[in-house]
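Consortium newsletter contribution from the modelling node. Members have asked for a concrete example of what our holo predictions look like. Here is one, prepared for the delta-meso nitroheme complex that several groups have been discussing at recent meetings.
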Amino acid sequence: MEAGATDQLALDQIQGNIAGFNKPHQRFVFLRFPDVAAGRRFLHVTRREIDSAAKVAEANRSFKWNRERGRDPEPKRWFNLLLSISGLRLLEAPELELFEGAFQEGMPTRAAHLGDVDESAPEKWVPPFQGDIHALAILAADREEDMGRLQTQLSHHTHACKVVEVGALDGHARPGENHSHEHFGFRDGISQPGVIGLTDEPKPGQEMIPAGEFILGYPTQPENAPPPSQPSGAYQPVPAPPPPAFPAWASNGSFFVFRRLRQDVAGFNRFVESASAETSLRRDLMEAKLVGRYKSGAPLEITRDQEPNFDPQAADPSIADPSILEDEKINNFEFEPHDADGHLTPRAAHIRKMYPRNEDPPGKAQSESHRILRRGIPYGPDFEPSEPAYPGEGAPPDDQDRGLLFGCYQASIERGFEFLQTQWANQPDFPQAGDGRDPITSQDVPSPEFTLPPDDHLTMLRWVITTGGGYFFSPSLDAIGFLGADQ
Ligand code: N7H
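And here is the predicted structure:
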């Protein structure tokens, strides 16, 4: 299949956030159905309001077209509806035993496996994550005032169907120049896999991945196949292994992992300060070593347009050449062969652990077999350096509670999110013995180690704490109709 072909995916069936809402205001509303009849009625009445990937992708194209011409794009409001395993059970969805184990068990049951221990343990999670959640409504809008309209519309249906809204979490892009940056200060939302049949103009360095890695019912990435060619995005099809098992009604659906991740910005900043003093590295370079990018988003690697002897460590390259931050350049790099030892980007840096690109091990083909479509948005107020330290060892007060409402779509949670978290982030010996843990996402031990080549070993603290989460399924529009009908 040619990269960019859009006629092969049933985009009018697939829910819209898989294409990416990309909105600065998002609300996650968690729902409980009192009984099967109420649940089915709720699906039946909300089905026609669910926005499809076809609609969202078209609006995203028009948004970009208008922005490039200096015009104000038309503001949009989006709505999607997802179900947890207990919601599907209550709705008496058939053949649920075909779904993979991780989804059937749910995130809290997987806590020990994921490393959600100590402060991150499910017993400490905030409401509504202590109770049973049947469904998740995702509301998204360009304008904050439109969230009220979306919420009113949703509540109209929940009241009419006697569905309980057990809690809601609001995410907002940070204000002003920090708009695209998360709370530690790094630009986020840069590197995403291209999806064959959905991504029509892959950016340089953006590999095109078979849609079956993200959406059920399509070809998947063969783990041991030769790597797809790049950088133009021209993908050479290779025979696919059999897709993971799932009930027939689940075609065109996708699994959504949601995590409420609290960030201790003061703790992160303190660590950077002491580690840069210890290693005599500039502070901005120390930060970049942990993530693999400077806060601006500029990579710590030599991009394909730069001279081979370019030194990305001398200073953040975007200071001298802001064009490095453009789509054509910012993600156009590999780790091998010039940085096999991690002297530029440490092998345990967050972006290298989470997507090792052509690094071997694990090799490009395996790297491309564990991609996810990230859909995170910050929550909580901006950090103020003058704010008081947290009281004792406890949780921060509400007005200092900030972090990321992390979300990601994939066709298999075990192959996607869980693999990244357990096999790569939490493994001190991945990709090579002694490389250390992911400084951003691993929380499984109190004092994770991080190897800064050539021979510094830093002992970190935990700055990211899991405070809630769940596994959800985003059914196709037809499947919502099917599950909402009296069967
Ligand atoms: Fe990560 N951060 O701000 O430090 N992440 N992440 N992440 N992350 C990325 O490329 C961050 C988390 C991935 O393709 C960037 O968009 C924070 C989880 C993947 O090169 C930054 C949190 C998981 C990539 C951050 C967090 C991942 C990625 C670079 C939690 C999955 C793409 C900007 C609070 C288990 C790698 C960008 C690639 C990139 C940050 C969580 C995965 C800056 C603060 C839980 C796959």
